[in-house]
Amino acid sequence: MMPDQCPQLAKLPENVRKFWEDKQREVDDTLIRFSYAVLTESAERFLVNKSGILYLMKNNLWFEDFPKPPLFFFLGTKSEYKKTLIQMPRAALGKVEIIPESALHELFQGKKQGSGFFQNLFRLFGAEPRYLLLSGKQASGSSFQYAFHELDDPQSWVQTLSEGLETRK
Hints:
Elements: H1 14-27, E1 31-42, E2 47-57, E3 60-65, E4 85-89, E5 93-100, H2 101-109, H3 117-125, E6 130-137, E7 143-149, H4 154-168
Antiparallel strand pairs: 1-2, 1-7, 2-3, 3-4, 5-6, 6-7
C-alpha cells in the first residue's frame, strides 16, 4: 500500500481490496477514502435519493451507484436501472459544507420544508438530518451542486475536502 493511499483498505476483505485496486487502475488515480452515501437530487416536486459509494481520489471525487436486486414483490418485472456515475474534479470544488435537511429543501426546491404537527413532532425525537453539500464549477463553466447524507463521519469529509480548497486560495 502506498503511503498516501486510503488507510481503510488494510482492514478490508481481499475481494473488496481487489475492487478498489481495479477501480484505481480504471481511473488512474489513488484512493484516499470512501463511504457509503446517499445522493439527494431535486426532482420536480420532491427529492430523489440514490444510494451508492462516494469515494475521494487524489484528483477527483466520485459518486457511483450500483443495480439493486428487485424487491420480493417485483421479482417478475424488468428493472429500469440507469447507472449514476458522477465525477467532480477536486480543483472544481468551490464550497464544501454541512447543512440541515430543511435548508436543503429550501435550496433545491425553493421552499421551506413543511412545519406541520408531524414534522415538528419528529424533530423533537431526533436531530434533523444533515447533508454534505458540494458546490463548484466544471471546466466548461457550468455549476454543479450535490448533496449527500448517511456518510461515515461527514465532518471529516468536510475537513479533508476543505484542505484541498485552502491550498488553491
